[in-house]
Every structure is written in C-alpha cells, then in structure tokens.
Amino acid sequence: MITSQHRVIATSALALAAFALVPAHAERFGYSANGYGTYAYNGTKASSSPSALVGLGCSATAPSLRTNTVASSHVASLYTAGQTDTAVKIPVVKGVDKSLSVTKIASISMLGGVVTGRNVTAVSETNHDGTGFHTSSAGSSYGALTVRGAKIPALPAPNTKMPLPGIGELILNEQSADKDGNSAGLDVNMFHITVTNPNNPLGLAEGTEIVAGHAASGLAGPVAGLVGGEAYGSFVSQSTALESGPSAPIYLGCEGTGGDVRTHEAANVDVTGVLSLGSVENTAQGTVDKTTATDELTSTVSSPNIANSAMAGSMHADAHAAIEGGKLKISDEGSTFSNLKVPGHPEVNDNVPANTHVPLNGYGTLWLKREMVGPHGIEIRMMELILDKSNKLKLPEGTDIRLGVAQAGAF
C-alpha cells in the first residue's frame, strides 16, 4: 500500500541529486521538484519505470528549468498513454522563492478502457513570500475524463475516490500537502488506481497500482541544513538493462516530512528465479529547521531469498544523518539481521560486521551490511550479490542484486 503521507515516486537519480551538493551554510532555501507521466507497480515488482521523468534536486538554484518528453508509454493490461511532456522549474520572482512542476499527458487509457483521459495536466507549485509558505495545484485539469464509460464533466475535488467494481479503487486529483514553519510541499496525481480484488477480471495481482499525471514540488528554508534520501526493498540491475526496479521505494525530498513518518509497503515481491521477499516496509522521516537538519530512512524485509537460498528471517536497514552545530553526524544504529544464514559459511551470524563479503559458490560475491559513507551521508545495503561471469542464474557478469537498502543524507 501507499499511505496518504507517501510522496509517491521519484527515482534513485532524484534522491541522489541531493548528494551532489553545494557546501553547507546557514540560512538558505532548498528546492525540490519532479514530475512524470505514468508509473505502474504490479504488486510483486516494478512493472514500469516512471515515463518522461524529470526532476530538480536541493542544490538547484534559480533560475533552473528541466524538461522531458516521450511519444508514448505502454504496459500490457495496465495502461497506454500518448505523448507526455514534463517540466520542472525554479523561476526568478522578486521577493518569492518558488518551485514548480507541470506534467501533461495527451491521452491515456487504463485497465483496458475502464478509465480514460485526454489533455490531462498536473500542476504542483510551492512558494514562500512575506506571508509564509503556500502550495497550489491551480492549472491541474482533465480535458476529457471517463470512468466506466461515464463522462466526468468537471475537475473533481481533491482526493475524490471512485469504486471500480470487481477491480479496486480510483482516486482522481489526488493531493498530499505538507507544511510547517520551515518547509512545504505538494504532490499531485491526476490518477491513482489500486487493485484490491485478487479475483479481478483482468488477472492483475492484488496491490497493483497505477499512477498517472504526477507533479510534485517542495521548498524548505530558511534552514540551517537540508536532507535527502531513499529506501527500497529490492533492486536488480544489469549492465545492459534494468531487470527489476526498486520495490516499494520511498524518497525523501530536501524539505523533509515535518517529522511525519511516511511508509510504502509491498507483499510477496518476486523476480522469478532471482529473488523473493515475504514483505517489504520502507519508511522516511525528516525534519529541517533553523538549527538542525535530520533524517532517517529504513527498509525492513522479511523472508529474503537470493539465488534460491533462504538467507535470513528478516533484515532491517536503518540509516541516519543529521547536521548539528554545523557538523554532519551519520549512523547505522538499528540495522540488524534476524536468523542470518549463508550457504557454505557457517561462521556468518546475525552480528556480522559491516562490509563483510564472502564468496557465494556458483554465483559471485555476497556483501552483508554493506555501508558506503560519503561527505554528506550514508547508504546501507543489508545484502548485495554481484554475479560472476559463470553464474547459475545465467545473468550477465556484474548483475547487481540488492536487498534492504536505506540511504540518508544531510548537508
């Protein structure tokens, strides 16, 4: 499930953009913005990457503009979309700090025509002026919208829920806003479908989600520091292609969450013959103010299995980062294994030291509690298997399989 507090999807590139940073200094604003056309998650693994994805990280300054366009996107049984244009912008406006995201989809059909739209526009704006922080979705619209064959004549109110009998639920004009004295942000999803009926006529897995028309903006400041990070349950990459994107990913923008904990969960994640997980729960929490910037990202995975070997009862990656008194503090406190077992290595147990790596016969090198520390944060990968040339999975040499990943940064 995606909770109402979850800022839906960016990508690793956007989360990592927070670590390509300017030097820390006091009393400044941080900007974030991202947009994409379509994204699907089928309940067990990522079915598609976000289309026409574009974003700006915290180190961006005004004026900044980035755009992306795709001619079409398609995932069988889930959606077909026409041309999608995305743009994120930090304009120069006297007396105002502002971040803006706009996504436009020429046409889209979801679930075989159950939901359709034309000339769909998602807009998210966050700004700060002499009166404080403000968020707005003004300009968001549907040029034409049908649900189960019925025309919807006007822009529905934010977070309008509609049942999809035999399938699940649709949320139109989905909006999630955060605002406190030091930051604000707004996510807009023009469509958010969740499959809740495991016996639906389309044969889709329970938990399948489709998000279309996504725009997000955020702003934090003036603050002493900013934050950024990500967490996900599993990821498989090859040198030539993406095998499986991050499962149940959650991303933390530079403005934090105002202290709220955002959660993204998934059950029964499976990449056939490569990995399987019983369940995944990832969380993100961050606070920024005039004296400190702190965040915590976690990933909890039950029943992890890599290369047909049950490795542990569970694992928990817990990454912390903070700016306190102008200095960076990082920690892996709380990162643990439960009932850890590695075939051929009886010496390995739950108390394995950070950055332990052992050969996994017939596969490659297995890292346990791998930690990478940079000038602005820490990344924890509780398990990472990098395949050798002649591996039993018959995947390319260098294929990277990760489980239980959390990354936190502050600057």
β-strand percent reads: over 45%
Biggest pleated-sheet summary: 9 strands, antiparallel
| CA gyration radius, whole angstroms | 21 Å
Q: Could you name the ranges where pLDDT drops below 50 across 5 or more consecutive residues?
A: 1-26
SS content category: mainly beta
Annotation, overall tally of beta strands: 30
Tally the structural domains. 2
Mean pLDDT: 88
The rounded distance between the terminal residues' Cα atoms is 31 Å
Tally of alpha and pi helices? 1
Helix content range? under 10%
Shape: globular
Give the topology.
Elements: H1 12-17, E1 28-41, E2 54-56, E3 64-70, E4 73-75, E5 79-81, E6 84-90, E7 97-110, E8 115-129, E9 132-136, E10 141-147, E11 150-151, E12 160-164, E13 168-179, E14 183-195, E15 209-223, E16 227-237, E17 242-244, E18 250-252, E19 262-271, E20 275-288, E21 292-302, E22 305-306, E23 309-310, E24 314-324, E25 327-331, E26 336-338, E27 356-360, E28 364-374, E29 377-387, E30 400-410
Antiparallel strand pairs: 1-2, 1-15, 3-6, 4-5, 5-7, 6-7, 7-8, 8-9, 8-10, 10-11, 12-13, 13-14, 14-15, 16-17, 16-18, 16-30, 19-20, 20-21, 20-22, 21-24, 22-23, 24-25, 24-26, 27-28, 28-29, 29-30
